[in-house]
Amino acid sequence: MQYDLSFAPYNPFEGNLRIVNVRIQGVSVLQPRTPPLMTAFPMQPDRTAELARLLDQRILVLDGAMGTMIQGYRLGEADYRGACLADHSHDVKGDNDLLSLTRPDVVRAIHDAYLEAGADIIETNTFTATSIAQADYRLESRVRDINVAAARIARECADAWSAKTPAKPRFVAGALGPTNRTASISPDVNDPGARNVRFDELVASYGEAIEGLAEGGVDLFLVETIFDTLNGKAALFALETFFDRIGRRFPVIVSGTITDASGRTLSGQTTEAFWNSVQHVRPLAVGINCSLGAALMRPYIEEMARVADTYVSCYPNAGLPNPMAETGYDEKPAETARLIEDFARNGFVNLVGGCCGTTPAHIRAIAEAVKALPPRRIPASETVAEAA
Ligand SMILES: [Zn+2]
User: Residues 31-67: pLDDT tens digits?
Assistant: First the structure.
């Protein structure tokens, strides 16, 4: 047996000795690790411990929908284009993530409204800011800029509110949405094996968004609205790869979506199966968002609270979609807040907020409803194992 041990130069993240290669009988069994990337940009410090301490003290509040609020501005093609895309070849109206570049005032005003309503954590306006999703608008080349800009706007807003209310620090979550292509479901009913995106394409696309969000100054990442777990795993793998490269971690929240009353994700998983698929990344929190609205979500958030040995998040839509309603949803703030208060009273949740159709009025009502209620206690791993 032949050991070929070499040591890398001093690295502040890993100590001063690092085995980079081991050969056994001439065969290399440990590949040299890629040295951590010394990023050209500063990043937020690790706020995991601070977030965990706050989550132990009280139920934290996430913001509400961005899309619903943007709709209220009735923006036209010229607003979406701004000066920088005046000559762009394709229409971009409806590309809400682009507004971080072309109408930052709108994005800033919405963040401020949610922070004013009581949100502890705001999400960057980046739900579709990946090269895969932006391909619809032929804006793949602007993805990095969109993510950096979105994170910077949210950072400035959160810092301004942290300064105003020092006892209530605010955080920015870099939002990573599901994209418009699914890695494990065929787009063609006649060909179940067909796919329009590959896992490694998703990883590369998420990787680009992640770097932009980190550069713009997010505190944590939120992999959300996961209806195909394989897409979610691509985002999580891209995050793990990024953490390896920079030699540190960020807190991660993983949030799935139940797509119908059978209680499964679109790719067919129950709540417990979904948790089992993502728990290896040790998320700060795991939960459910979007989809059915709080009333129909109850059994699944209860199940997540029972099986997950980490914090649990929940941010439902404002009820079921109603095409006749102005925002597409008609559940009133008091009703959403009442349903979420019930989750809190039953010890299901640590982090709550709103998804599609929710407004600052919903977030204010939710924050008010949970402020005096204790957060869910994380069950000890053994208890979870026995219950399962
Ligand atoms: Zn939603």
Answer: 445 555 567 789 999 999 999 999 999 999 999 999 9
* CATH number for the domain that contains residue 306: 3.20.20.330
Q: Distance, CA 306 to ligand 1 centroid (Å)?
A: 24
The verdict on 2 and 149 lying in the same domain is no
Q: What is the pLDDT of residues 65-91, one digit of tens each?
A: 999 899 999 999 999 999 999 999 999
Helix (H) or strand (E) holding 70: helix 67-71
Token output for 165: 């209310």
The low-confidence residues of the chain, meaning pLDDT below 50, are 1-20, 31-32
What is the span of the domain harbouring residue 7?
1-35
CB contact at 8 A, 220 and 151: no
Are residues 238 and 182 part of one domain? Answer: yes
Return the closest-CA partner of residue 110 out of 74, 154, 169: 154
For residues 47 and 18, membership in a common domain is answered with: no
Per-residue three-class SS string for 225-273? EECCHHHHHHHHHHHHHHHHHHCCCCCEEEEECCCCCCCCCCCCCCHHH
Tell me how far the alpha carbon of residue 355 lies from the centroid of ligand 1, in angstroms.
Answer: 4
pTM of the model: 0.89
Is residue 218 within 8 Å of 124, Cβ to Cβ? Answer: yes
Distance 66 CA to ligand 1 centre (A): 10
Do 250 and 152 fall into the same domain?
Answer: yes
Whether 171 contacts 220, CB under 8 Å: yes
- Judgement on whether residues 223 and 369 belong to the same structural domain of the protein: yes
* Ligand 1 center from residue 385 Cα (angstroms): 31
Cα separation values, 55 from 62, 121, 168, 326, Å: 12, 12, 12, 35
What's the number of domains the chain is made of? Answer: 2
* Ligand 1 center to 357 CA (angstroms): 8
